[in-house]
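Morning - FE2/S2 (inorganic) cluster inputs below, output right after.
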Amino acid sequence: MSVAKLEIELISSNGEVSRFEAKSGGQVSLLELCEDAGVNAPFGCRVGTCGTCVVRVLEGLELLHQAQQMEEDTLARISEPVGAPLRLACRATVKDGARGLIRLEKVLIR
Ligand code: FES
């Protein structure tokens, strides 16, 4: 397993931009990377069912593992089929050895 070295940008729902460097050596979620960097990212269940942590991936989708069934099911329930792809920050994990920028935009669910 090789360590991923990333730059992560999170645009909050009020437009505030947080940008930080992150290293990931395993199955660490985007939510955990934000928390480790002291960046406030909304969450609820942390297991992929509530949808509170949903983000739009503006850049860097290829650096993330593919969504698993529970994440797919939750996204299908909460998302609009327009715009950049959505992921759950609590479930989306970074691929081993990934390098680059991941840009995320917080999406408010109705
Ligand atoms: S915190 Fe509930 S789906 Fe991510």
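Note: The helical segments are 30-36, 69-78.

O.
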